[in-house]
TrEMBL record:
This is C-type cytochrome. Coiled coil: none annotated. Keywords: Heme, Iron, Metal-binding, Signal. Residues 76-161, 187-272 form the Cytochrome c domain. Residues 1-27 form the signal peptide. It comes from Serpens gallinarum. Transmembrane segments: none annotated. PROSITE patterns: CYTC.
């Protein structure tokens, strides 16, 4: 595939059709029916599948490592109690095994890092970015840098980016959870509750705790001890609204109005969840400290319905607040 075909707007649609043919029925049903189409000048990449991996003639030992990375990505619960302390897999938020546009595809990290990251104020590489999702989204502790599990996860991300040049030019189509237009009527708790009760409780439960069966996450927790903590990206209203709009209810993506998506995001993010790992002991102070780089878009440390959100010492299932790797760091070489 040469670069010019990747900039060609129809490339994604065509290749998606080709890759859909090879997906199994269950996975096919999980693919969004009506994803927004690429805009002129956007960089489009269709990541390879695990079937493509088997056909590739790379070293068998590398294939084994990438398979392990894939397995960790879709069943991260195998690290429960060691690195993961909630009811999430990486694929709970990075849908389609981390390949799907508008659902946090993970390959862009492999070709745009190392880069400066505002959230922690220093240059991060791929392993550190993965570590971030362990610390916040999985309410956990990342596998050590350079460990078998970390190398396997990084290798899986890099495999998905196969053929993409480093630091590609142009905006990446469907990266992250692209921001929706601002809500015309603001965000409202009562309206959001209604949206949740009508469209979400059948899977995620009225108390947001989801469903775990025989150690397998069937439906992840949208809030509470089994969910991501207060420092996770989804806690920002604009990120959650976009995730929901483009991916939920499961099997009916893009069916809610933008307004409903903002309202339900606000409702979910007005519930409690495990403490922010950067907690200083005072929720208002913590909000203020990370306001510019993060909490300006969350309800953490604000009063909603008479409750000060995040005002507790509950760290969920783990027995520590903050994993060591979150220490601030400066690049010291001249
Ligand atoms: C609770 C939801 C959630 C879970 C679970 C989760 N992530 Fe993320 N992840 C996010 C959000 C939100 C972002 C930021 C997306 C954005 O900036 O729009 C993100 C970003 C990323 C990125 C950067 C993507 C880019 O475009 O540069 C990588 C890599 C990543 N996650 C890897 C992982 C891995 C590996 C796991 C499992 C160990 C994981 N994530 C689990 C929510 C999640
Ligand atoms: C048919 C079942 C189903 C319905 C209905 C549903 N979800 Fe989900 N949801 C899932 C599954 C399953 C996942 C994990 C993704 C995966 O494994 O493919 C998920 C993931 C999520 C996540 C990310 C992980 C987490 O728990 O934070 C959020 C947020 C979410 N759903 C919100 C919603 C909202 C809001 C609605 C209603 C508008 C909704 N869901 C409706 C099944 C459902």
């Amino acid at each position: 595939m040469n670069i010019s075909t990747r900039y060609f707007p129809q490339a994604w649609a065509f290749a998606a059709l080709v890759s859909l043919v090879s997906l199994n029925v269950q996975a096919e049903a999980r693919y969004p029916a009506n994803v927004p189409q690429p805009k002129e000048g956007q960089f489009v990449h269709v990541p390879p599948t695990m079937e493509d991996l088997e056909k590739n003639n790379m070293h068998p030992e590398l294939k084994r490592v990438i398979r392990r990375g894939h397995d960790l990505f879709v069943n991260t619960q195998q690290l429960r109690g060691k690195n993961v302390f909630n009811n999430m897999n990486c694929s709970s938020c990075h849908m389609g095994e981390g390949r799907q546009p508008f659902a946090g595809p993970v390959w862009p990290a492999a070709v745009t890092l190392p880069d400066f990251r505002g959230k922690n104020g220093h240059v991060n590489n791929l392993e550190e970015r993965i570590a971030g999702c362990f610390s916040y989204s999985m309410n956990g502790k990342p596998p050590a840098y350079g460990s078998d599990d970390m190398i396997a996860l990084a290798a899986y991300h890099q495999w998905l980016a196969k053929g993409v040049p480093m630091y590609p030019e142009g905006q990446i189509y469907g990266r992250g959870y692209p921001r929706l237009p601002e809500p015309a009527k603001g965000m409202d708790y009562a309206r959001g509750k209604k949206v949740f009760e009508t469209n979400c409780v059948m899977c995620h439960g009225a108390d947001g705790s989801g469903l775990v069966q025989n150690g397998k996450v069937v439906f992840p927790a949208t809030w509470g001890d089994g969910s991501n903590n207060w420092g996770a990206g989804l806690v920002r209203h604009f990120t959650l609204a976009s995730f929901v709009k483009h991916n939920m209810p499961l099997g009916r993506p893009n069916s809610l109005s933008d307004q409903d998506a903002w309202d339900v995001a606000y409702y979910i993010n007005s519930q409690e969840r495990p403490q922010e790992p950067r907690y200083t002991g005072d929720v208002r102070e913590t909000r203020e400290k990370y306001l510019k780089t993060f909490h300006a878009n969350t309800s953490y440390g604000l009063k909603v319905n008479g409750r000060l959100l995040g005002d507790h010492d509950n760290v969920g299932e783990k027995d520590f607040l903050k994993p060591d790797v979150l220490r601030p760091r400066t690049f010291t070489a001249e």
